[in-house]
Every structure is written in C-alpha cells, then in structure tokens.
Specification:
about 325 residues; alpha/beta; Spore Coat Polysaccharide Biosynthesis Protein SpsA, Chain A; about 10% strand
C-alpha cells in the first residue's frame, strides 16, 4: 500500500491540478494507493475543492485542521492517518512534480529506506530562497552528519517502519531523514524536477532559516543527550565552577602579593556568579535526568533499536 501525503494551505488554484496529477500517477499502481490531503486551516476554497474531489474518487482522503498549525503538524497528521507501508510527501503548490514519485519508489526498491528529492535546478528567487537554502542545507549536513543537498524539498519517500513513532514539532518535518538515519535507515537522494510557482504565493520567508537552525539544535541535543542530559548540564556546571575557582584564586593572589583588597576588584563577584551558575546547571541536569527517565518509562520507550531478529519467541517480539 502506498500513501501519498500532501499538506495544503491556501492553494485553491492548485489543488484541482494536483489531484489530477496524483490520480494519473496512482493509476500506475492500481487500487493500492491512497492520497491524503491535509488542509492546514486554509482560508480560501481549498477544502471545498478537496471535498469535491474526495466525493468523486475514493482514493482521495481529506483531513481538515480547525486552524493553521503549520506544515510539520500537517505532515504528522498524514503519517498518523496513513495506512500504507510506503509514504510519499510532496507540496500542493505544483512546484514538486508528481511524475517524479515513481522515480523515488524505484530507488526504495533498490534497498533504501529514505529517498529525498534534490531540486538541483531550483526555480525560485536566487537571493531570497536559493542562496539561504544552500547555506542552511550545508549547516544541517555538517551538524547532523547526514549529507543531503536539499533538506527543504518536501518530495520524499519513506518506508513507514523507519519513521514509526517519530513525533514532529516546530519545523522539524525537514529533519525526518536525520531521525531515520540515526535509527539505522539507509538514506539517499535523487534529482527531481522543480517548477516555478504558477498560482498563489509562497508561504515561506527568510526568517524561516533561523527557526530551522534553532530546531536543528534541538534535534542534535535529542540525538546526543536525550538519554543522559546530565552530561550537558553537568559539563556546563563543572566549567562554571572552574571559572569561579580561577577568579577566586586570581583575587586571592592580588590580595596576597599586591595588597589589593578583595572588594577593589570584581573578581570576587565574578567568582560568586559563576559558582551560582554552576549550582544551577547541576540542579537543572538532575531535573532533566528525572524528566528523561519519566518520559522513557511512562511511554515504554526502549534505549535501543532492533532492526531484525531471528528465532525470537513470539511473546518476546512484543518487547522489541
């Protein structure tokens, strides 16, 4: 079963063309296809047109949000309601070409778990969109260790089992390949067609880059320190104590060798502040440890990921 998930926000001029294009692609795979459109609180007639399409064709499924929640929430809703073993995401603005979907699925058949589209010949504004995107993609690849040319391309294909259980927030939908790679998935990318927008307006601005980079820091923290947050907070605390000790020794040396009173320099105050910061960091680390253990134990989260198993009894498989 193939699930094609399309987030929609104020795309009334595009949805009918997108539905037609997806139905043409779906015709190549028979009845084992569903097209899930997630209307992200559109204020135009996008939902009405999607509803008409759903009535005319049963493979079209529509989810409507009560208000605008963002693309990440729309993609998460699509994942939650998808019944297919393979998931494909693409935008509703017709800049992604549905005709590229078979190309992504063919790559999955070669043994990959995630196939990301690469808009090498991107038809967007070179200064406002393309240049900042290149910088962001380079930073994301360096920080995450998962090297892709185009994280911002929504057109991606996944095996559902590699993103099962992933919960998305903020602008984190673009980091799904990173989550999957950290779980052992094989990730690759293919060149895809990118069209200039014909109808409507782009919903993205340059400020989105800063949100993405902040979300990337969160993702990196979860990767390295979700299980032992004390290493981060405790490390900061120890460093603060070290600075406090240096400042205090410096002030003491000035008193003993230069006869400069402790209250004549700011070093004693600096030492006190860093010592207080150190204490706060240690306490925050302890709280983070408690929250981390509560999170994993309350949801039955394991500290390991099993790819396969052989000769494991049925009653033990549920624990994996």
């Amino acid at each position: 079963m193939l699930s094609i998930i399309v987030p929609v926000y104020n795309e009334e001029e595009n949805v009918e063309h997108m539905v037609a294009a997806l139905l043409e692609v779906a015709g190549q795979y028979g009845p084992s296809v569903e097209c899930i459109f997630v209307d992200d609180g559109s204020k135009d007639n996008s939902y009405a047109k999607l509803a008409e399409s759903a009535k005319a064709n049963s493979i079209i499924k529509v989810i409507r949000f009560a208000r605008n929640m963002g693309q990440t929430a729309a993609i998460q809703a699509g994942i939650d309601h998808a019944t297919g073993e393979t998931l494909v995401f693409l935008d509703a603005d017709l800049q992604n070409d549905p005709a590229d979907i078979p190309k992504l699925l063919h790559k999955l058949d070669e043994g990959y778990d995630v196939v990301s589209g690469w808009r090498k010949d991107r038809q967007d504004n070179a200064i406002k969109r393309n240049f900042p995107s290149r910088i962001a993609n380079w930073l994301i690849s360096i920080i995450s260790g998962v090297h892709l040319h185009d994280y911002g391309c929504t057109l991606k294909a996944y095996r559902k089992d590699v993103i099962k259980g992933v919960r998305l927030y903020g602008e984190m939908h673009r980091f799904i390949p990173i989550y999957a790679a950290w779980m052992g998935a094989k990730v690759t990318e293919v060149l895809v067609t990118h069209h200039a927008r014909k109808f409507g307006q782009s919903k993205y601005g340059i400020e989105r880059i800063f949100k993405v980079l902040l979300d990337l820091l969160v993702v990196k923290f979860f990767d390295k320190h979700l299980y032992k947050p004390m290493y981060v907070f405790g490390g900061c605390g120890i460093f603060s104590f070290l600075l406090a000790t240096i400042a205090f020794i410096w002030a003491l040396c000035l008193k003993l060798f230069n006869n400069i009173s402790l209250i004549q320099t700011p070093l004693l105050l600096v030492s006190s502040v860093f010592a207080l910061v150190g204490v706060m960091c240690i306490l925050m680390g302890l709280l983070a440890e408690i929250m981390s253990r509560t999170y994993h134990e309350s949801q039955g989260k394991n500290a390991y990921i099993v790819r396969e198993h052989i000769n494991i009894p049925e009653h033990d498989k549920e624990k994996l």
